[in-house]
What we know:
The chain is α+β, with helices and mostly antiparallel strands. It has one domain. It is about 10% helix and about 30% strand. Strands 1, 2, 3, 4, 5, 6, 7, 8 and 9 form a nine-stranded mixed sheet that branches. Residues about 1-30 have low confidence and may be disordered.
Amino acid sequence: MFRKISLMMFAVALSLIVAVPVALADQPDMVGGLGNSSPSFAPGVYADGVAWGTKGTAFLPAPTDNNLQSYDALYVIVGGVADQLPVSEAGPGNPDYNGGRWLTYTATWKAGSTPVLLTSYADLTMHADDLEIAVGPPEGGPPAYFQCPLLPVK
């Protein structure tokens, strides 16, 4: 549903990203120091109802029509509950998981909505379909395209 955003929109969004994310400031292994960070086995991303750790490995170039299917969507939630982590389209064990190659989106709770903890793509799409959440290009957050495999929480 949300992956239909054009590559041109992604290119524009990428040119607008200039800062380290506020939404993920507590998860430096996911964002800062990609390629130099140690694995974090603390909760960093929700996927398929499970909290996962992370290991930032590389910034990636914008996808092309030939490799777009090898990326998963990662949603940075704005205006959510206090313990909200970013939500992945899929995680380990899900046949649609692509190993941690991410396209980043912002999912913003709309005014008048009552935010709840989102732990899966199904949760996110249900609230987006109910028009409680607006999904758009990244607005300050992790890089628009990066590699960061998900790791079990210990």
